[in-house]
Amino acid sequence: MIMVNSPLTPHPFTRKPGIAGPPVEWLVSEEPALYPEAVAFMEARVTAIAAGEARECVWLVEHPPLYTAGTSSRREDLLDDRFPVFETGRGGQFTYHGPGQRVAYVMLDLKTRRQDIRAFVSALETWIIETLAHYNLAGFTDPDRVGVWVKRPEKGAGYEDKIAAIGIRLRKWVSFHGISLNVEPDLSHFSGIVPCGIAEQKFGVTSLVDLGIPVTMPEVDSVLRSTFEAVFGETG
């Protein structure tokens, strides 16, 4: 485990100067959300945000065990279809979602912030890295691999595990889909796919609890909210 002493400096992605608006709505679902219903909610909310009829929104959910296939997914990367598989319009390849993983669906109007997809992804990465820093974990990104990673020197030289995934889509410059952070999922469930198309053995998957951090989902949610506000602005 790599330890850090203080959080990294955030890269704010707040609203542009002079553009006012209500706080981002912060929703947390207590019950598992079915994937088709989650997509339907996002589709409707994004349409309403783009029309100026709804607030921006971050929605925290857990899903029953399932796999999603992004726009770059390859059929051969689905190794075992033990769980339902959903085609999705987000970027990326195959991803697992399930209990113990916090999924955050991020619906923001980038026209009021910054119309730069790469900068937006960087801001999402910063949000995750700031959250990990709260637990003295040094998360990092790699230009050749999506998501946020942690080094695992105890496994051997060069070993790194993915702890969070990112996959987004934009419609009229309003974002949807978002991030998933592994808190305490069943890591064996990832073996049914090649996560994000990365098959090298030195690149695995981990979680906060797997790294020896005994946290609850509500505790993680609280940290996610405070670190989100440091990067994106006020929630309510």
In short:
The chain is an alpha/beta fold.
Mean pLDDT: 91
Structural class based on helices, strands and sheet pairing: alpha/beta
Helical percent range?
10-25%
Shape label: globular
Number of helices: 3
Percentage beta strand = 25-35%
Which residues sit in consecutive blocks of at least 5 with pLDDT less than 50? 1-10
- Tell me the radius of gyration: 17 Å
Please provide the count of β strands: 11
Distance between the termini: 35 Å
- How do the helices and strands follow one another from N- to C-terminus? EHEEEEEHEEEEEH
Outline the biggest β-sheet: 8 strands, mixed
Output the keywords.
21% helix; 8-stranded mixed sheet; 3-stranded mixed sheet; 236 residues; 26% strand; alpha/beta; globular; disordered N terminus
